[in-house]
Design goal:
This protein is mostly beta strands. The protein has one helix and eleven strands; from the N terminus they run αβββββββββββ.
Length: 142
Amino acid sequence: MKKILLFAIPALILASCGKQETYIVGQTAFCANLEETSDEKVFCRDINGNPLNGLVVQYFANGNKMREMEIKQGKENGIEKEYYENGNLKVEATIKNSEPYGTSKLYHENGQLHMVIKWHGSDSEIVKLYDEMGNLVKPMVD
């Protein structure tokens, strides 16, 4: 019995590590004001109305991802990615308590990096700007 427990406990711990619940908007998740900043205390809920914890994914009608975001206690917290309808990445940002945090990257529809934005609280500054070919147009800071 002791041998079984010695092997079972680490196996259970390993199996639960890194596993994150995934929710799909409109099916297993309902999120308020996805196109705007929400003033609601709880941004995303499950089908029973409970605040979500996990990864929330939204899809275009063509089946490509539109958005994926990490949600903790119903609010955006973690990495958020938005995509163009063609499947290319549009925005990659870190969100902390439903606000942008750190550095965000925006991309042209062709997949080339468009700009790098640095966040200072609710204020932001464009750090680098690129044309659609990926050429640096202007470094905004030294």
